[in-house]
Amino acid sequence: MPLQETAVHERAVLVQVIHGRMDVDEAADSLQELARLADTAGIEVVGQVTQRRPLPDGAYLLGKGKLEDLRAACVERQANQILFDNELSAVQAYNLNKDLDVRVLDRTEVILQIFARRARSAEAQTQVELAQLQFLLSRIPVLEAQQRFKGGIGMKGPGESRLQLRNAPMRRRIAELRKKMETIQARQSRQRDKRQWPVVSLVGYTNAGKSTLLNKLTDADAYVDDRLFATLDTKTRLLRIEARRLLLTDTVGFIRHLPHNLVASFRSTLDVAVQADLLLLVVDASHPRMQDHLEVCRATLAEIGASQVPALLVLNKCDLPGAAENVTHAAEREPLAIPVSAHSGLGLDTLRLAIVEELKRCCTLWRLPSATSAI
Ligand SMILES: Nc1nc2c(ncn2[C@@H]2O[C@H](COP(=O)(O)OP(=O)(O)OP(=O)(O)O)[C@@H](O)[C@H]2O)c(=O)[nH]1
Ligand SMILES: [Mg+2]
């Protein structure tokens, strides 16, 4: 469901600067992804401006000429927002917002906006608020530097102390939220220690079909949508295989350039993956950039400390025509990958068997009698 809460109709021009050794095809896919993120955020995309340059401009990211093109495109298309696919530095964001008449956001801010509007549980809301405050704090040095300049070089000007006073409640709130998250994490960890059944976590790129797989395997009713970041609140369901039980958990999807603040703030949600006995790493096999998605997932798993958790690679959406080529290529590089279709049910029996084999091998809980006892 798109985010309909926005009162003003939001119309955006997308911007991307391709520089250095950036892969052109991956950049094109990333821009398409930004358009989908905008759609999820309820923002209509009305145009796009791209530029190739050896190095990004330190002050504006774009060159001066392109900046004027962008200004003209906004007027012509009646855009009230500009969304940059590149991450903006605090200085670039400040300059662009000051010089252009419309609101300027980068990819990180668009993702944060989606998370802020979609988070439903208290836990997800706390995590999002923490990420937002940390993001805001990262943008403040420029304002501080300006105030310092006004107060005199090398001196503590009145502006700086005003800003510090303004920051103080923000820092206090961050400390409060961190404490709250620590309490939640400690509670979750105690619950996990008491668990009787192995935990298998569905992880993977956003829109790969994790929630659909959870629903199909366990008769659950997790929210499924052809939009990015449909799931922000994790769901756990009991899965029975061969008269044994395990817990299957859905998680937040990964995406390229996932903001680090968000990863850090979503620690308690992502810990479901770190603490799992087995991961089902799900990718959309029908996507032309499947291999990039897989690399992003593995890098994110490493970032959250889950790269040592045993994992089965699941190639989903094999019912779609685009999947055949990816599956053939993957078979060479990843011989243990399991092609499935959560829609048609293809490959799900193989997946169940593979889960059992892997748990037998790596999970002591699976061998305990409790895994078969009555609920
Ligand atoms: N054709 C096809 N579509 C699928 C399959 N599995 C899921 N989908 C579709 O892919 C879209 C995304 O599915 P979700 O289950 O919401 O994906 P997700 O990985 O949970 O996505 P996020 O929660 O956003 O990270 C939906 O439109 C699903 O109907 C499949 O096997 N085949
Ligand atoms: Mg989902």
Poorly predicted segments? 1-6, 151-160
Our estimate of the beta-strand percent is 15-25%
Hetero groups: guanosine-5'-triphosphate, magnesium ion
Tally of DSSP β-strands: 10
Major pleated sheet: 6 strands, mixed
Strand order of the largest sheet: 6-7-5-8-9-10
| Rounded radius of gyration (Å) | 23 Å
Helix content: 40-55%
How would you characterize the overall build of this protein?
The structure is a single chain. With 375 residues, the protein is α/β, with parallel strands linked by helices. It folds into 3 domains: 11-115, Rossmann fold; 119-189; 196-371, Rossmann fold (3-Layer(aba) Sandwich). 50% of the residues lie in helices and 16% in strands. It contains 13 helices and 10 strands. It has helices spanning 24-40, 64-77, 90-99, 107-118, 122-151, 158-193, 210-218, 260-265, 267-274, 290-303, 323-333, 348-362, 364-367; strands spanning 11-19, 44-53, 81-84, 103-106, 199-204, 236-241, 244-250, 278-284, 311-316, 338-339. The strands form 2 sheets. Strands 6-7-5-8-9-10 form a 6-stranded mixed sheet, with helices on both faces. Strands 2-1-3-4 form a 4-stranded parallel sheet, with helices on both faces. Strand 6 (236-241) and strand 7 (244-250) form a beta hairpin. Helix 3 (90-99) crosses helix 5 (122-151), helix 4 (107-118) packs across helix 5 (122-151) and helix 5 (122-151) runs antiparallel to helix 6. The two termini are 36 Å apart. The relative contact order is 0.10. Residues 1-6 and 151-160 have low confidence and may be disordered. The protein binds guanosine-5'-triphosphate and magnesium ion. Residues 210-211, 230-231, 250 line the site of magnesium ion (MG).
